[in-house]
Amino acid sequence: MLLLENTAGTKNRMGGTFEDIRRIMDHIEHKDRIGICFDTCHAFVAGYELRTEESLNATLQHFDEVIGLDHLKLVHLNDAKTGLDSRLDRHEHIGLGYIGEDGFRVILDDARIKELPLILETPVDNRRDDRGNILKVRELATQPKED
């Protein structure tokens, strides 16, 4: 299966909108062999709000209307070093960026996401390593989200 990944919406690149991905999919002959990898950082910096239950629902509903949730196969779980709609692809440690801990509690609690494979593409530096980010994801996944 070929997985297409959403992009940060950087200038002169396709994939920053769900409509871009749909256009690419429409030109692939074997649509049954196409899946989508949803990158949380890329979506957020491309302008898709993910930090509240309402905004995540709206984003995933739009995804479903344009692409179809049945195509969602994998999530790249990354926080963002830059703000909403900044169009800059800069991954940050889980909970330390603009999506933040509360945003990841919402994302990790969503039934459409929680059963999917999650891959971290977070930095490794003196603040946290891969193990530390995995532990943070597990911690946030078990904490109740704030209303």
Characterize this entry briefly.
With 147 residues, the protein is an alpha/beta fold. It is globular, with a radius of gyration of 15 Å. It has a single domain (2-142), classed as Divalent-metal-dependent TIM barrel enzymes (TIM Barrel, Alpha-Beta Barrel), CATH 3.20.20.150.
Characterize the structure shown.
The chain is an alpha/beta fold. It is 38% helix and 16% strand. The chain has one domain (2-142): TIM Barrel (Alpha-Beta Barrel), CATH 3.20.20.150. It has helices spanning 18-26, 40-45, 53-66, 100-109, 111-114, 130-142, and strands at residues 2-5, 34-39, 72-77, 79-80, 91-92, 118-120. The strands form two sheets. A four-stranded parallel beta sheet has the order 1-2-3-6. Helix 1 (18-26) links the parallel strand 1 (2-5) and strand 2 (34-39). It is globular.
In which order are the strands of the major sheet placed? 1-2-3-6
Overall SS class? alpha/beta
* Secondary structure tally, helices: 6
Which CATH architecture is right?
Answer: Alpha-Beta Barrel
CA-based shape: globular
Reading off the top of the CATH hierarchy, the class is best stated as Alpha Beta
Uncertain stretches of 5 or more adjacent residues: none
Q: What is the number of domains?
A: 1
Secondary structure tally: strands: 6
Rounded Rg: 15 Å
CATH overall fold name: TIM Barrel
Element order: H for helix, E for strand: EHEHHEEEHHEH
Look at the structure and name the CATH superfamily: Divalent-metal-dependent TIM barrel enzymes
